[in-house]
């Protein structure tokens, strides 16, 4: 991504965040990512590509909205009241689930790392089998949250088949 494209995204993100009257720290918590990373996005500095998906999720924008903005100039829709994907919600869902503990630990660490959680899972010091289970679980959890199928108040049954 060019410096001009990053600057355009940064200006859009800063403007939309300011319009919602939300701090960088609060938005970063929705993503989840550090406030420093959120600030880098707003400043138009280089970040991992997966970071932009976290920004989109924090605003409740469809995935790919920022790419579409850079390519076409079409701004994402107004922020929804409930973001499509909140890392904190996923962490709670993971902890309440029946996934094996080793997979839960990998998922929580990946969600809290900021950026693309799949990258964090792939870099984790864990057996490959647990990484694969965690990536599958992450994709399933993300799909449930984006589609609105997950009820954060209801624990998920993710027990391993016998």
Q: Which features does this protein show?
A:
62% helix; 162 residues; mainly alpha; disordered C terminus; 434 Repressor (Amino-terminal Domain)
Strand content: under 5%
Biggest sheet, in brief?
A: none
CATH homologous superfamily classification of the largest domain: lambda repressor-like DNA-binding domains
Amount of helix: 55-70%
Shape: elongated
What CATH first level of the largest domain would be assigned? Answer: Mainly Alpha
In the CATH hierarchy, the third-tier topology of the largest domain is known as 434 Repressor (Amino-terminal Domain)
**Distinct helical segment count:** 9
Low-pLDDT parts are: 81-87, 146-162
Distance between the termini: 46 Å
The run of helices and strands is HHHHHHHHH
Radius of gyration: 16 Å
Describe the model.
- Helix 2 packs across helix 4 (49-59), helix 6 (87-96) packs antiparallel against helix 7 (101-112) and helix 7 crosses helix 9.
- The protein folds into two domains: 3-72, lambda repressor-like DNA-binding domains (434 Repressor (Amino-terminal Domain)); 87-147.
- The longest helix has 20 residues, at 128-147.
- By secondary structure, it is mostly helical.
- The chain has helices at 3-20, 24-30, 35-42, 49-59, 65-72, 87-96, 101-112, 117-123, 128-147.
- The chain has nine helices and no strands.
């Amino acid at each position: 991504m060019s410096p001009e494209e990053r600057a355009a995204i940064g200006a859009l993100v800063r403007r939309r965040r300011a319009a919602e009257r939300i701090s960088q720290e609060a938005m970063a918590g929705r993503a989840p990512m550090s406030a420093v990373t959120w600030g880098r996005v707003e400043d138009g500095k280089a970040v991992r590509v997966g970071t932009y998906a976290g920004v989109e999720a924090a605003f409740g924008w469809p995935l790919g909205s920022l790419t579409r903005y850079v390519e076409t100039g079409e701004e994402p829709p107004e922020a929804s009241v409930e973001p499509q994907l909140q890392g904190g919600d996923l962490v709670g869902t993971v902890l309440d689930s029946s996934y094996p503990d080793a997979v839960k630990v990998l998922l929580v660490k990946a969600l809290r790392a900021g950026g693309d959680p799949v990258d964090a899972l792939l870099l984790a010091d864990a057996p490959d089998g647990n990484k694969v289970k965690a990536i599958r679980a992450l994709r399933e959890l993300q799909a449930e949250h984006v589609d609105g199928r997950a009820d954060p108040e209801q624990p998920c049954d993710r027990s391993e088949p016998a």
